[in-house]
Amino acid sequence: MKPQINAVQESIKIALDAADAATDVTAEYKRIKNEYIKTEKKMKEIHKYTTIIFSSSIATAIVAILLTGLLYFKSLSELEEMTDTSREALVVFAENVENVNKAVENMNLSLSKHTDL
Hints:
The chain is an all-alpha fold. Helices cover 98% and strands 0% of the residues. The radius of gyration is 49 Å and the shape is rod-shaped.
């Protein structure tokens, strides 16, 4: 009978060890599940911030491109105005040079007439 009692005690001990191992596995599973939930929350938070930063970056880039385009076209318009003004000034200068040349020619003719007299 002693071997049967020892076998029953051994079986009970094995069953208790198995139950203890199952409890440990369950506790470990619960701990890992909680860590997974925490990690998932952190990842969602990181995703949210990343999305906000990415959207802000895109919006800032679009605003910068628009402002740069505005400044470019404003400068281009001013440059065209300056070019037109320079052309007009060059035409006026050329006309004045032509008038001065005519006046010098007339004066030379007058001087030559006075010299002849």
